[in-house]
Design goal:
Order of helices and strands: HHHHEEEEEE
Strand content: 15-25%
Mean pLDDT: 80
Largest sheet: 3 strands, antiparallel
CATH topology of one domain: Nucleotide Exchange Factor Grpe, Chain A, domain 2
Number of strands: 6
Distance between the termini: 160 Å
Helix content: 40-55%
CATH architecture of one domain: Roll
Number of helices: 4
């Protein structure tokens, strides 16, 4: 006769009871098969595909950016090397004219030389204008310290004070940027003597 142990049910197998407990809690090493897990796997695959697409997109953009940098660098280098090409082409006729004037000076009179110099100056002015270089000849204009360099002040009874009385050296600008200020003499108020 078997003795009954208090608290134990003789009809229940203890090994089978342990197996039931394991099934209820689940073994983490065994794959779970359910509809939710199928969705999780497809979400993971979708995320991997998106990550691969994003990586490819990133690599293409990085390559494109590198190409833009290289192209910009080449264009900048070409601008440095050949940026003055237009001005140089405009100045070549001036040089040709000067060379012809020097050759003609041996057999020419003063009038012909003077006319040749005037023609060369016109060519040079046209070349500078073509390059966007503008002459500053501010005689009679109000003095502007941004565009004029005052060499001295001179009393004047005819000119308004703080106006350009005389231009010593013309100034030049290129596309509204000052290349060289005009060197000028600025008028100041004339000193009047004591009248008795």
């Amino acid at each position: 006769m078997t003795q009954d142990v208090p608290g134990e049910d003789p009809d229940i197998d203890p090994a089978a009871d342990e197996q039931g407990a394991a099934d209820a809690t689940g073994d983490p090493s065994e794959p779970i098969e359910s509809d939710a897990d199928g969705e999780t796997l497809s979400e993971l695959e979708t995320a991997r595909r998106e990550a691969d697409e994003n990586r490819d997109r990133y690599l293409r953009l990085a390559a494109e950016l590198d190409n833009v940098r290289k192209r910009s660098s080449r264009e900048l280098e070409n601008a440095r090397r050949y940026g003055l090409e237009r001005l140089a082409q405009a100045l070549l006729p001036v040089r040709d004219s000067l060379e012809a004037g020097v050759a003609a000076a041996e057999n020419a009179d003063v009038t012909a030389l003077l006319e040749g110099k005037r023609a060369t100056l016109r060519l040079l002015d046209a070349a500078l204008e073509q390059a966007g270089i503008e002459e500053l000849d501010p005689e009679g204009e109000p003095f502007d310290p941004e565009r004029h360099e005052a060499m001295t002040m001179q009393p004047s009874e005819t000119a308004e004070p703080d106006t350009v009385l005389t231009v010593i050296q013309k100034g030049y600008s290129i596309h509204d940027r000052l290349l060289r200020p005009a060197r000028v003499i600025v008028a100041k108020e004339a000193v009047r003597g004591n009248e008795d």
